[in-house]
Write a structure and sequence with these properties.
Layout (H helix, E strand, L loop, with lengths): L1 E6 L4 E10 L2 E11 L1 H4 L7 H23 L8 E7 L3 H18 L3 E5 H7 L11 E6 L4 E8 L2 E7 L5 H11 L6 H9 L24 H12 L5 H29 L9 E5 L6 H13 L3 E3 L11 H12 L32
Parallel strand pairs: 1-4, 4-5, 6-9, 9-10
Antiparallel strand pairs: 1-2, 2-3, 6-7, 7-8
Helix pairs in contact: 2-3, 4-10, 5-6, 5-7, 5-8, 6-8, 7-8, 8-9
Bound molecules: adenosine-5'-triphosphate (ATP), magnesium ion and fe (iii) ion.
Pfam family, one: TsaD
Subcellular location: Cytoplasm
Catalytic activity: L-threonylcarbamoyladenylate + adenosine(37) in tRNA = N(6)-L-threonylcarbamoyladenosine(37) in tRNA + AMP + H(+)
């Protein structure tokens, strides 16, 4: 199966061509355009600007991916595009582009849940089999899920306020570090003292897998206001913030790993996915937790942690291979600003199209 994938749910315009043959994944192309310059002056993603930027380069991005793959549209078996959740203007651009190509080429269209893309992203590497315990940490989401197979997602716990990526972004903004915040905070944290500030570890010792990060950001704001922000203080604040995040995620991961039963004869796989999964300190902390339980941590390469189209094409390919997409596919599907991953299984139901 050869699938064109399109991603446009936030501030990345991306297109990729992926081949899935006998369970083996080959990426023929993987183009990502990040709208950094467009949003930088506002220190955050502006939905209207994002939608326009997607509209301006979506066609060229797809053309580049096809050129790089060295195939024509007739060689495709389907076209997959992110259909939610995300900023609706951008989602519409990607969906319309995908639907137009699918119709013109006479191929099925596959409406993909962006979170399912993140959830399956470690499978781009080819060695991460089902089932697995998943920690999805991105700009808009923070949740533990049990992944039993394609379309089988059970949410075990989520943040009750901010997502982790959001906490990184807001912390960076209040410290004047620019956007996106994650990479900036991580860079500064490297030279700081993680014990300089004793920030809270919200909900860490409560039972269950729900998390909370809004209070942590407030604590950083309060500490930052206490004295002038020298280079050293800035680094200490970042390091202490990141250490608190690591502790909370590791503590909850311990709980989740304890409760997760992979089933008879299955090894224990723990997956870390989403933009925040590119954070080295978090990766290291969670790798240690997985090892402590005799398991293995799977996290995609950095390029596939943040938004990309390869993961969207992979969902399309896996769904098609499973037999859920026939004829014109999901051509009737609409854009969904909200679309919890637990409901992604609905797209396997032919009645959905
Ligand atoms: P969602 O997937 O929930 O819809 P999104 O698509 O905007 O949200 P992603 O692209 O998966 O999110 O991830 C972007 C987020 O990841 C941003 O909040 C960014 O700050 C964070 N991030 C990126 N790199 C790092 C890093 N090195 N450390 C911490 N956070 C990071
Ligand atoms: Mg982004
Ligand atoms: Fe994302």
């Amino acid at each position: 199966l050869t699938i064109l994938g399109i991603e446009s749910s936030c501030d990345e315009t991306a297109a990729a061509v992926l081949r899935l043959e006998d369970g083996k994944v080959t990426l023929l192309s993987d183009v990502i355009h990040t709208q950094l310059e467009e949003h930088a002056p506002y220190q955050g993603v502006v939905p209207e600007i994002a939608a326009r930027a997607h509209a301006e380069i979506a066609d060229r991005t797809v053309a580049a991916a096809m050129r790089e793959a060295g195939i024509g549209y007739d060689a495709l078996d389907g076209v997959a595009a992110t259909s939610g959740p995300g900023l609706i203007g951008g989602v519409l651009v990607g969906m319309m582009t995908g639907k137009a190509i699918a119709q013109a080429a006479g191929k099925p269209f596959i409406a993909v849940n962006h979170l399912e893309g993140h959830a399956l992203s470690p499978r781009l590497g080819g060695d991460c089999a089902f089932p697995y315990l998943l920690l999805l940490v991105s700009g808009g989401h923070c949740q533990f899920l049990e992944v039993r197979g394609l379309g089988q997602y059970k949410r075990l716990g989520s943040t009750i306020d901010d997502a982790v990526g959001e906490a990184f972004d807001k912390t960076a903004k209040l410290l004047g570090l620019g956007f996106p915040g994650g990479p900036a905070v991580e860079r500064l944290a490297k030279t700081g003292n993680p014990k300089a500030f004793d920030f809270p570890r919200p909900l860490m010792n409560r039972p269950g897998l729900d998390m909370s990060f809004a209070g942590l950001k407030t604590a950083v704001a309060r500490a930052a206001a206490e004295a002038p922000l020298t280079e050293e203080r800035l680094a200490d604040l970042c390091a202490s913030f990141q250490a608190a995040v690591c502790d909370v995620l590791a503590g909850k991961a311990r709980r989740a790993l304890e409760a997760f039963d992979p089933g008879e004869g299955e090894s224990l796989r723990f997956v870390l996915a989403g933009g925040v999964a590119s954070n080295k300190a978090i990766r290291t902390a969670l790798e240690a937790e997985a090892k402590a339980f005799g398991g293995e941590l799977f996290a995609p390469p950095l390029r596939h942690c943040t938004d990309n189209a390869a993961m969207i094409a992979l969902v399309g390919a896996e769904r098609m291979a499973a037999g859920g997409i026939e004829g014109i596919g999901d051509l009737g599907a609409g854009a969904r600003p909200r679309w919890p991953l637990d409901e992604a299984s609905a797209t396997l139901d032919p009645a959905y199209a």
